[in-house]
Amino acid sequence: MIDGATLPQGGDPRGPDEAAPISRIVAEVAASFPGERITLGEMTAAFGERSFGLMILLLCLPGLLPGMASVFGLPILILGVQMGIGLTTPRLPGFIARRSVKRTDLLRLAGASSRWLRPVERFLKPRPGWFTTPAAERLAGWAAAYAALMLILPGPGTNGPPAFGTIVMALGLVEQDSRVMGIGLGITILGCLFATGVLVALCFMGVAAFHWMV
């Protein structure tokens, strides 16, 4: 779905309505670019102040699919580290910013995800609290980076829990909902610990099998 092609210029540089639901924002950003493809850099610019949360959300959705997680793990890792060190807007390296997604695929993804995002969006609302503070957002960034590592490393059943938790966390970040942000952060950390445990167990099994063979 994403490759290194560049998008023809000409999209509307203005961002979407900041008060719009997440699924509609994604659809509006996709519709605002008339070209066949949209680069990750252009999406980052279009999302404005919501770039971190929306980009992580968008990149995590395909991560729930088998075989797709490792493709999107590196951009999520970079975004998570940048959040963790306190940047307010993403600064994607050129080789990632130039990667593009088909506009039709983005619209299809927004339409498919809206079926389960819409009920979540009705629950979401701005809820100030500790998890909406800059310190909590940095913690969320490091948690997203941890989840990205679990998406990149191969392991049976290790992609889903970290990706799901990161999606919930990103939803809370976008809407500045402290409750959802905290729930998502907890799920992300538990999912990453589960994935880490599986990978460590596989390593021990591999070493034991090697010693048995020799």
Topology at a glance:
Layout: E1 2-3, H1 22-31, E2 37-39, H2 40-47, H3 51-60, H4 69-84, H5 94-97, E3 100-102, H6 103-123, H7 134-152, H8 160-175, H9 178-213
Antiparallel strand pairs: 1-3, 2-3
Helix pairs in contact: 1-6, 2-3, 3-4, 3-8, 4-7, 7-8, 7-9, 8-9
Q: In words, what does this structure look like?
A:
This protein is mainly alpha-helical and 214 residues long. It is 65% helix and 4% strand. The protein is built from nine helices and three strands, in the order βαβααααβαααα. Strands 1-3-2 form a three-stranded antiparallel sheet.
Poorly predicted regions are 1-19
Query: How much helicity do the residues have?
Result: 55-70%
Largest sheet: 3 strands, antiparallel
Percentage of residues in strands:
under 5%
- Lateral arrangement of strands in the main beta sheet: 1-3-2
Mean pLDDT, as a whole number?
A: 79
Order of helices and strands: EHEHHHHEHHHH
Number of helices: 9
Radius of gyration: 18 Å
Broad shape: globular
Question: In brief, what are we looking at here?
Answer:
It is built from nine helices and three strands.
Descriptive terms for the model:
3 strands; 65% helix; disordered N terminus; globular; mainly alpha; 214 residues; single chain
